[in-house]
Design goal:
It is a single chain. By secondary structure, the protein is α/β, with parallel strands linked by helices. It folds into 2 domains: 168 residues, Rossmann fold, CATH 3.40.50; 168 residues, Rossmann fold (3-Layer(aba) Sandwich). 43% of the residues lie in helices and 13% in strands. The protein has a 6-stranded parallel beta sheet with strand order 8-7-6-9-10-11, with helices on both faces. It has a 5-stranded parallel beta sheet with strand order 1-2-3-4-5, with helices on both faces. Strand 9, helix 10 and strand 10 form a beta-alpha-beta unit. The longest helix has 18 residues.
Length: 368
Amino acid sequence: MSGWAGKVVRRLAAEIREFRRWEALRGADDIRVYYGMDRLPSREETVSGGIVKCLDLAERFPHSPDKANLLYLVSSALPERRELLARAAQRAGGRFVLNQNGVAYPAWAGADWRERNVPNARVHAAADFVVYQSEFCRRCAERFLGARKGPGEVLYNPVDTEAFSPRKDFDQPVRSPVLLAAGSHHDGYRVKTAIDALALVRRSGTEARLIVAGRLVWGPEAEAEARRWAREAGAEKAVEFQGAYPQAEAPALFRKADVLVHLKVQDPCPRLVVEAMACGVPSVYSATGGVPELVGVEAGAGIPGPEDFEEIHPPAAEAVADGILRVLADRGTLARQARMRAVRMFSAREWVDAHQHLFERLAGEDGR
C-alpha cells in the first residue's frame, strides 16, 4: 500500500499503539512516567539540557515506555507526536506535565516565529501542569504561547551538587586563569565575543586562556571560522576547542575553569550556569533572560542588555573583558558564594522532591 492511503493506515496504526501505552493514574503509589521517547539515553552519551532533566527525574521515577500514566515532556526536546501523546495520556486518565523552557520570537526565530510556536502553544494549553524553568520562561510563554487556565510554577533547573563539586583549591588565587565558554553554541557571537574579550584581558597583563567546549553549530564552517577569529585576535595559542562533551564529563570540565563566560542573549534558564556555580565557578554573562535569576548579585558579573524580542543585542567585548577582570579581582569570594548559592537554590534532590509532591498532588486530584 502506498500514497495517501498508506499514510493514513500508518498514522492510524501509530495512534492505536500510542493509546495502548497508557493506563489510568490510580494514586500516588502508582506513578509511572513516560518521557516522550522509547529509549532514554544515559549520562555517558552526549545529550541536550532538556533530556538531562529527564535523567534526573528517572532516578526516582524510572522511564516507563509501557503502561505509563504520567507524561513528562520538556519544551526544548518535544517529540513530533507531542499532541498525540498528550491526548492519549489524558484520555486514559493519566496526567501530562510540561517543563517549559524558551519560545520562538522574531529576534532569533525569524519571520516564521508564529508558526513555530503553534504546536508548542497547544501542548502548553493542554498540560495539566506547567513547570516553568524561570520567571522569564513564564513571562515569555504567556506572551508568545498564550495565557493558560491551568496551574503552573517556577522550578529552576537543578544540579547534582555532589557530582558537580569544586576542586580543592577552587577559591585560591591563580596565575593563569582559565575562562570557559560551554554548551551548544548556536550563535557565533557567543564565541567571537568571548575570544575578543580574552584578547583584551591578555593585553591588560593577565595571562588568561579560553576553553571553548560544546558543539559549534551556527554554520557548516563554524569551527574554522572560530579558529580564524582567534588568529585575528592574536589569541590563537590561548584558545582551546574541545568539542561536544557527555554529561558525565561535565564536572571535570568545570573544575578546570576559573570563570564561566556565558554570553547568550536572553537565555531562558541555562543548566550549565548552575553546573558551573555548583563547581565554584562564577560567571560573566549577558544579564538578560533568566540568567540573572540564577546567578543573582553574588555569583558573578552581568553585562546589562535590553529585553528585546525583535533584535539580538550581544554584549560588547570591552564590557565582557571588564567583567572578567572584575570577577578575577574578587574570584575567591565569588567562587565560594557561587557554590553556596547552587547548594541552597538548585539542589537536584530538592528539585526531584518538588516533582514528587507535584505528581502525588496530580494523582490525588483524580485518584481512583
